[in-house]
Amino acid sequence: xxxxxxxxxxxxxxxxxxxxxxxxxxxxxxxxxxxxxxxxxxxxxxxxxxxxxxxxxxxxxxxxxxxxxxxxxxxxxxxxxxxxxxxxxxxxxxxxxxxxxxxxxxxxxxxxxxxxxxxxxxxxxxxxxxxxxxxxxxxxxxxxxxxxxxxxxxxxxxxxxxxxxxxxxxxxxxxxxxxxxxxxxxxxxxxxxxxxxxxxxxx
Length: 203
Ligand code: VGL
Ligand code: ZN
Fold this sequence. Notes:
This protein is an alpha/beta fold. The protein has a single domain, classed as Rossmann fold, CATH 3.40.50.850. The chain has five helices and eight strands, in the order βαββββαβαβαβα. The strands form two sheets. A six-stranded parallel β-sheet has the order 5-2-1-6-7-8. Helix 3 (about 150-160) runs parallel beside helix 4 (about 180-190). The longest helix is centred in the C-terminal third of the chain and has 13 residues, at about 180-190. It is globular. The two termini are about 20 Å apart. Bound molecules: pyrazine-2-carboxylic acid (VGL) and zinc ion (ZN). Zinc ion binds near residues 46, 48, 54 and 107. Pyrazine-2-carboxylic acid binds near residues 8, 115, 146, 147 and 150.
């Protein structure tokens, strides 16, 4: 079985959002076209409490994009984003959700960030996504969404580690930094994953 993971296609990552990913809105129509080609579609949703420690606003004297140590992990400090219950945390209104069977939320624990749909950044707690996918007999995981160099990358890396055949759908992702995305894609390929285009799936 083949699953499509739609990563964090939420208003705050779209143009005019709190943590806008350049051209992030361009993934939406591709994500919509892709869904009918999969046995299973799952979405992730970044879902932070207002006092989340990944927010620069929670650290006196720190600025957005500074890097700090947080519970022993390197942490980029972000603008406040995807705060639970706010419009910015909602999925784009243009994203089709009727085929999305489950939504895995992440980033709820204030002291630890969670880029991957599978685990927090410290790999301390599972979201249950691995067991969910195995329960549906999924062997192949295709990853798309935002941001290509953060949550897509960390999700794909964990998918590989969990033993899924893993594909990043390059044109269905947009990164915060293009350079970061190039490194991310190279790392996924080095770890045995594949980078593919949506046209190879929808045609
Ligand atoms: C993300 C930074 C902070 C993402 C989430 O979805 O890639 N990036 N939180
Ligand atoms: Zn976040």
